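Internal tracking record. Fields below are filled automatically when a chain is submitted to the structure queue. Please do not edit lines marked as system-generated. If the sequence contains nonstandard residues, flag them in the REMARKS field before resubmitting.
Queue: standard
Priority: normal
Entity type: single polypeptide chain
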Amino acid sequence: MKKTNLFLALLLSISAMVFAQENNNVWEPHGYQGFLEMNSGFQVVNKGNATTGVSTTHGFYFNNHTYVGIGFGMDFCDIRGNNSSDIIIPFFANVNYLFSNKTNVSPIVKMRLGSYVGSYHGTYGDLGIGVRFGSRRDFAVTVMLTGTFYSNLKDERYYYDEATNTYNTKDNVNISTVSLRFGIEW
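SYSTEM-GENERATED OUTPUT FOLLOWS
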């Protein structure tokens, strides 16, 4: 809990500095941009199992604030809860909104919508809020807190119920995650 409060205080202080800081030497994003991101988090419902992943997005800034692109990624997670490593590959459309393009540090909001394939398949959605640290050249680093939704998975898991001496199935698995995402933009 202390780490969460510290992170939120840091995010608030950085965003306060964003609106106080003006810099004429900041590169304003425009045209083609690529993103490479790595995330690490935990599954909200499924016993808090850890997840990791990488993704890449490519698209264009249509103005100095709005970015639209498409991308894909690879997420590694333990869907069954037995220390296995399942691979999920999301394909998505991505929209970013950069709040201030006149400063080196700016709040950013990101939304992804699409689907996923791999060990399972279904609908994918992702919403993130964070901070973008820009440079004087065509390069930036982002830090985001994200929530990712995977539609409920259908997984035939059989388990033995000793009370009734029967085998039963559990078929809905929720692997929606909350994660911290680090990225670079070029």
